[in-house]
Write a structure and sequence with these properties.
mainly alpha; about 150 residues
């Protein structure tokens, strides 16, 4: 049995949200690169060594910048997947979920940039976006399987 998938006009919002995530990733990467030089962490090292970061606040803060970006990258593939899949049937809801995730990632990063890792929790509202994306992805899957 086959199913034809029609892409609604509103899927353009999903595409735009996906593009916005690329800008987010680029922005976070630029922030890391900019602080790397200031902190004196040379390439190819991903992080400053613990012993260095404990003695130098700039190296510690660099690790926070790097961690904020890495954390975003850890959830990026599944977020894009759920955005694309959920957006097939629920493009506006999926886009809103994606935008909430983006705003959460920005708040998370800004909290981490303070050098106080516990402030990253300012971005926890972004999980509402992830839950939304998960919900519309599951609903799209169920609809395709059981019509």
């Amino acid at each position: 049995m086959t199913t034809t998938i029609y892409v609604p006009r509103e899927y353009g919002y999903v595409i735009a949200t996906g593009i916005a995530t690329a800008f987010l990733s680029t922005y976070l990467g630029i922030k890391v690169t900019g602080f790397r030089k200031e902190a004196g962490v040379p390439y190819p090292y991903l992080y400053a060594e613990k012993s260095e970061a404990e003695k130098d606040v700039k190296k510690h803060t660099f690790n926070c910048y790097q961690r904020a970006h890495q954390n975003m990258l850890e959830s990026y593939p599944q977020t894009l997947f759920m955005l694309a899949v959920g957006g097939i049937r629920y493009p506006i809801i999926a886009s809103i979920g994606g935008l909430i995730w983006i705003a959460g990632r920005i708040a998370y990063a800004n909290g981490y940039y303070s050098g106080e890792p516990q402030k990253r929790s300012h971005g926890r509202f972004g999980y509402l976006g992830v839950i939304t994306l998960l919900g519309v992805s599951i609903a799209t899957s169920v609809n395709l399987l059981f019509g």
